[in-house]
Amino acid sequence: MPNFFTDNPDLRFHLNHPLMKKIVALKERNFVDKDSYDYAPVDFEDTMDSYEKVLEVVGEICGEIIAPNAEGIDQEGPEVINNRVKYARGTEENLDAIRKAGLMGITLPRKYGGLNFSIVPYTMAADMVSRADAAFVNIWGLQDCAETIHEFASDEQKDRYLPRFCQGETGSMALTEPDAGSDLQSVQLKATYDKEKDQWYLNGVKRFITNGDGDISLVLARSEEGTKDGRGLSMFIYDNRNNHTVKVRRIEHKLGITGSPTCELVYRDTPAELVGSRRMGLIRYVISLMNGARLGIAAQSVGIAEAAYREALEYARERQQFGKAIIEFPPVYEMLSVMKAKLDASRSLLYETARFVDVYKAYFHISKERQLEKEERQEMKKYQQLAEAYTPLAKGLSSEICNRIAYDALQIHGGSGFMKDYPIERIYRDARITSIYEGTTQLQVVAAITGIARGTLLQQIREYEEMKIKPELHTYRRVLVSMTEEFEHATQKVHETENKEFIDFHARRLVEMAGNIIMGYLLLLDTNRESRFWKSLEVFVRHARSENREKAEFIMISSLNDLGRFKQD
Amino acid sequence: MKKFKIIVLAKQVPDTRNVGKDAMKEDGTVNRAALPAIFNPEDLNALELALRLKDRYPGSTVSLLTMGPPRAAEIIREGLYRGADTGYLLTDRAFAGSDTLATSYALSRAILKMGDFDFILAGRQAIDGDTAQVGPQVAEKLGIPQVTYAEEILEIKKNTVTVKRRLEKGVEVVESVFPVLITVTGTAPACRPRNAKLIMKYKRSTTISERQNISEDYISIYDDRPFLNIPEWNVGDIDAEPERLGLSGSPTKVKKIENVVFQAKEAKVLQDDDKSIDWLMKELIRNHTLG
Questions:
Q1: Within a domain: residue B276?
Q2: Does a structural domain hold residue B281?
Q3: Annotated catalytic, A196?
Q4: Closest chain A residue by Cα to residue B197
Q5: Which residues constitute the domain of residue A375?
Q6: Best of A35, A36, A39, A94 to disrupt the B interface by mutation (most B CBs within 10 Å)?
Q7: Catalytic residue, candidates A438, A472, A485, A488
Q8: What's the number of CA atoms in the CB half-sphere (13 Å) around residue A49?
Q9: Residues B158-170 pLDDT 10s
């Protein structure tokens, strides 16, 4: 059976990016752990070797256990028994293997029992698990909750909860409510403080909570009576294992990712612990939690797209019509080439984003241990801005690309793809959620347009432009430079109106234009490192250029007066 | 709580399950170079049973013992990655050409040198020779009882162990005193995956011979982390009589080898429960009967 790490050389390629040297140095703090932990690395090469070896185990488990279980899990699904979630059998098997392999708490420090991996290899594991089963990755990926506890909880809470994540307990993030979806400011779940018992209690209902019956939950609740907006919300930890008081009322019947239990939860005098400071729940902690989750969905999107592309390629090579394999017909091979180019582009954007987050988060944690030098503070700031600008970009674009690839992959299967006989129908259904949850594409655009308004994205595009590349690649750079000019004109045209509605109206076009330029540069730099990406670069830049021209054209001929024509009566 | 000393016998074998065109040489012998070397599958089942005993009785130790060429140290590392505490490699040119009699003699000498033990677990048979003789012969040489075809260790009392055996027409539950040697079938639980921390801990574990080729940068690590040393024993180390080893100790002589086409397949009796059906479906998909 295939190993999802070794059968995909693109992963090793992205793992061995030049910036990893800096990331590992920051993450390992000069390899200080090597004298106290027998599994800690002694130097950079040793760290990278450990990353590869562990990712090989992830790849093996994905290929041999998780992927073969995916279909059964999709059919069986989880169920609610006595207000508790019972996973499908395959899910239990997957979790057992993941726990025994020690693949929970991957990014947490060793003192809590974690592997202290940087975010790049963790994201790579998510990429592979998503390719194997997009539903299971949600349960596994909720170890992100531990990262938020690590960032904001007290030392005493960290000591109590983080080792449990490393031992394999699962998490959940309970944010959404029936009347608070995209608009989390209207969360109503009530948190009340009992002074005598020195204890917080939660009351109310949460909805659409992934893995809502997980062991350790982060819950967003209104702690300040009488408030109506985000400033009255705080973050709580609910320990489902040691005081089970939350009832799972039902789980949703969904189009896709059916193996991932989406719960409606009822809290009745549920004891919970405050995390960090009151009133900071949404403003500070959820933002961080969501950013981690968004990077996770970007990885999920890339993993699903990988699975879809592979299914389509295999089918197109085997399926014979009119006396030859259908891959030989231009409409089919073009579809496949665009799928592959966009898959490579979105993966490259994913790992660029993961690296920015890595550097920023490493500095963030170091800053809690000691005061940062001036230069370090500047770097932290720079990478924080990049991480904030790239995360919604990666989530928004890769989830849309994933949907497009899944759509085309099913199309290549023809009528067979519409039947339950091939995995592509499941992959297609699973893909659909990626552009919806953890913030819809429309909301990612709202976050990403800030990166355009502030100039963060353009500045980074300029940095790519300056990078040294091989002479034979200059022609692609010239195209990207002219696309950048076009993008600047369009941005100027939109922003000079200083009209918020007009900016919102065109925001997605601008974000996609910037995204195309950035992904074009990333593929250019990938090709500069390894020539096998040349084909994807060629196909991607051709398509991106004409897509951007279309958007620019649309923007340049639009004016404020046009908006009314788009409004429904 | 009791603590047990458990020895697992393991063998590195050519992967005969994935046989390509060049798997056999013209003279009818196995072309080992063309086949990847793997941990004998049923020895992995044996390792899993050993690790489960260790889980049940914390403080128990699992030691691997393998005989083979220097590169067989690879399977000791594979065992360490899954939770074994230590492993011994028995390697010497004098062992070359050993049949099951000579092999079991060498293994039994090594076991005596390893010290006290409560359980010896071994795969039922290796996929290269398929004799199923080595385990039982080791038990004979050590003068201890043996339980073959084991699938599960059900219970351990003060001096006895209860084992479920998987036979062609059903299961049999037997009890034995221990120390005992138990051979394990492929129907026993599959071995757990390699563990991330253990991989990082043991990835540089080597025998002294392997260390000759290691980069200077990491040599000092062996002084700081003694657990990285995989003990390597030769004939002298196990006090064996040289004439009972290798070709001279092997009465089995290969006269002729010919290709045989399989007629009857190995039988597998399944329960009428979901788990067995699930297993069967996966098996059929895996060997491409379905899908």
A1: no
A2: no
A3: no
A4: A39
A5: 280-454
A6: A39
A7: A438
A8: 14
A9: 999 999 999 988 9
